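Issue 218. Parser rejects a valid record. Input:
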Amino acid sequence: MGDPAELLTIGISSAQHPQRSYLLDTLQSIFFASTPSELKHIIVLVHLADPDPKWLHQMVSNISSLFKPYIQARQLVVISTPLKNYLPLKHLKKKFNDTPTYVAFRSKQNMEYAFLMNFATNHSDYFLMIEDGVKCAPGFVTQIATILSAWEYKPYVTLEFSQLGFTGKLFRTRDLPRFVHFLLLFYQEMPCDYLLSHFLDLLMQKKPIQFFPSLFQHRGNYSSFKGKFNSLKGKDLEENDIGSPSNPAASIYTSLQVAKGSVLMNAYSLDENFFYTKEANVGSHLTVVLDKPAKVIQVQVLTGSGLKEENQLKEGQVELGFDSSNRSNDCDDYILLGFLVNGILNKQVLSEESGKKVKCVRLLVTATAPSGIVVRHINLWIK
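Output the parser choked on:
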């Protein structure tokens, strides 16, 4: 997937809004929802797409003062396109009973997106489009990176991490030039999300590849077009209370050294018992193997004794396993779910609507622990 800094460009195109702009809120959400290690993998590219010089100057000033560290680290880039570079916006084709004003608005928006994507082509391996008024789910970069790892060799044109308009649509950057050309060729025909649907048909992606829950939520109730009310909400944004864990019937296997008197199954029990190991060497694992594969929607791993952060697993990751060969005590295909932070992982599982069922959940030690570790809970929520 290239060097870490070249993984993902997040593109935003923004113009003046008749009510209020959420661009600064959106940028703040991106950076606040991402850890320092995640930020090393992304570039945020903002296209200021309004010709009003006063607005442009004000937005550049605001972005420069609020996000200076990210600009200096080259994690935030701001561009603008002169109006003279746009294709004609008068005497446009009228479709869908739209007013001439709205036809001009969506035609200009198609070009704004095309210019943004054209600039993004050589910056990273992947490009993610979001709109300028969204809230991002915490850890969205890691969740997208996990899906990209699983889909690296599979055919697709776009992966969708939101069902809202053009937000959350991800492309391989090598495919952007063709889509840019398509947008400019048919810019006055229909809105960008309609054009994308036709583009997917032409490239033989017959249905959207969508992942749930949504990683992005619209802010506010007004669209960027004057007079348009927008009450769209992302499906199942990662902020739902999904109740208590269910922990279905399973067996547990480990390569960790079980301390005398400790019971391995305590790591998976729903009571207050725990599992203790005197040492945790790199590569060691604790694996929950479900009796029946299930659709896992959330995983929680808690390590440590709770006293002064003792006995935490500081360096570890959690992986989801799938099985096609009916092995009884392991899986033959694992994907990364996420990393432990301060000995804890609590993460919803991003999956396709028709996604495979999970058979294994593996806690993997990625660096030898200097002392013993306590695994208090491995909890699963099943749909």
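Fixed in the parser; the record now loads. The chain has a mean pLDDT of 86.
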